[in-house]
Task: structure prediction
Amino acid sequence: MNETEMRAVLETLGRKARRAAAALAVLPSDAKQLCLEKMADALLAARATIAQANAEDVAAARSAGMDEAKIDRLTLTDARISAMADGLRQVAAQSDPVGRVLSVDVRPNGLEISKVSVPFGVIGIIFEARPNVTADAAGICIKAGNAVILRGGSEAFRSNMAIAAALNAGGSACGLPEGVVQLIPWTDRLAVKLMLKMDRYIDLVIPRGGEGLIRTVVAEATMPVLKHYKGVCHLYVDAECDMAMAVKVIINAKCSRPAVCNALETLLIDRAVAPAFVPMIGRALREKQVELRGDAAFRALWPESLAATEDDYYAEYQKLILAVRIVDGVEAAVEHINTYGSRHSDGILSCIPEHIAYFTANVDSSTVYVNASTRFTDGGEFGMGAEIGISTDKLHARGPMGANELTSYKYIVRGNGQIR
Result:
């Protein structure tokens, strides 16, 4: 298909999405809830078809030499298919984010000004080898009254098509308008470039994938973008802390699923506790086969560590590699995080209230933890059901984004003849 033909098809998708968005914006809450339940049912009914399509995608990815971290993201186990359906049901059961009265102000002249939540309209989502995003994105967008145009990665093309077909079957069964959920039916990268110029139809675009994809979207999109570039997440072990707890939290944050964006990438240890703590955490991480890259102070206490470079402290490894640095107190830890971090998820492990207060006030990240793993930065863990992604931006939405974060607002002004 040449560019002219592709552009024409995309224009058709855009027009359908606009019409669908207009209908969704005024769809009653109970109707949206029913449709999401039907879509969850349809996913489970199509479980075998989805699993077969995914198996073909995984086999092709292995043949192409895809690394294991990406294979893990691509793979849909039976449990993950069930989780997609569960996520839709959780979103369905939530309060409707549309029509919330955010504020009311009565002016001296008698005008009543209400600020009310409304859908964005049409949301474009570009993602890589995570087919579960197809279901998560559709559910959250519909709950928030938005139509969605999806462009998945070529690695998950068969899986995405099977999931989208099931979702649309469920939506049609309960009367959702055509065009609510649309998947761009090509793997050609030209489709992404053309999609990013469709600001006439798409109100907001959300990229989910590697830093290269996200930077391309930000550079080329003519509509607003919500994103995070990468997840360089930190934990700081303070001068006084429960060291056994700290070891448990660090192991979970680094090792439970190292390929995800909320996994730990850099560990900071207060110099005062380092002689006692480094051997404990070193042994625990060695058992998990984690490669450590440390500064000179850390290597003096744990000689097995490789020497860290400056680039290591900026790195999102997404594998069993961890950068470590010994720091002089909570102020130095905060300075390191704000310098090298990605404003994603960072935490302190401490028993000192003053240090905790300083850390939470001064770390400039979307999610800040106290005595807990960074792995909780997730829409499901935050009670959102599914999530549309995680934002490290500061305008509009920050952190895990659910249905509430996919609404904007408008002002409704009521008067009785006032003139200016």
About this structure: The radius of gyration is 24 Å. The longest strand covers residues 112-119. The chain has 14 helices and 16 strands.
